[in-house]
Amino acid sequence: MDFPSSHSSPSSTLLHRDCLVGANPIIWSNDDFNELAGDVPLDTILREMRAAGFAGSELGHAYPRSATALAGALGRHDLRLVSGWHSTYLASRDLAAEEASFREHLSLLKTLGARVAIVAECTRCIHGTRDAALGSGSQPQPRLTETEWPRFIAGLKRLAAIAAAGETKIVYHHHMGTVIQAEEDLDRLLTAVPELWLLLDPGHLAFAGIDPVAVAEGYASRIAHVHLKSVRPAVAERSRKEGWSFCRAVTEGVFTIPGDGCVNFPALFDILAEADYRGWLVVEAEEDPVKVPALPKARIAREYVRKHAGV
């Protein structure tokens, strides 16, 4: 990867004042791999998240799924609910069951004021399998078959309609180790489902060998949610050459915070400002919290966003 460094000059155009900056609890406690500080108490996560200067949080495995309990936990730390990941299996499971599961998730989000629903197709996903080697670039593992694509597209159109009826945007999270990892698959998806919004995650794009700035430029009008993490290119390259799993790549530090790694965040912030982006910016740099303590890293990332995006 030879994308411009994130140490480029500060953004010359500030993002809209309606933009808010949140965090994902994966900075403190990993959702996929319990050995990576999976036992950190929710109160610790939320207290430190607020201390680092964030306005809201996405969901994590330690968070209650009762609206009353979740509102209480967030409220005690003056945090808003941003959104939360929802796994779909539209290519392989019954659509009625998928719709019911999505409606339940959407209800929780809406009750607490979140207006963006994150989805990622997890049919045959391998990112949570500790010993499954990741694909990269145009040869990812796994991929949808030609018979699965129509089911997947139809299902997403249905979920997008449900979200829109509830005044919520459904955003798609391209992700390493899932069927939407390669650039051609992401392009195919966004072309086939124009009512679908994009979650821009430059970390996952860069890890897959895709230029985040080019994706942001091409889909600027479709971006409705942003995750902020970067990639250490040397670690990503070694991961590809040696066939690492997603777990090993994360543990070895493939992801890092904005201001480090290879992602040109000032350029991304300029693109978002030009597109009049008014959504959340969510810091989500997962590393091993034992190796890299969460709170100092979160504070550095929050200050970087304040300096380079003006929010």
The CATH homologous superfamily name equals Divalent-metal-dependent TIM barrel enzymes
Q: In sequence order, what are the helices and strands, one letter per element?
A: EHEHEEHEHEHEHHEEHHEHEH
What is the CATH topology assignment?
TIM Barrel
Give the biggest beta sheet. 9 strands, parallel
Shape category? globular
| Strand residues, percent | 5-15%
- Give the termini separation: 29 Å
Identify the notable features of this structure and list them briefly:
311 residues; alpha/beta; TIM Barrel; nine-stranded parallel beta sheet; two-stranded antiparallel ribbon; 11 strands; 38% helix; globular
Outline of the structure:
With 311 residues, the protein is α/β, with parallel strands linked by helices.
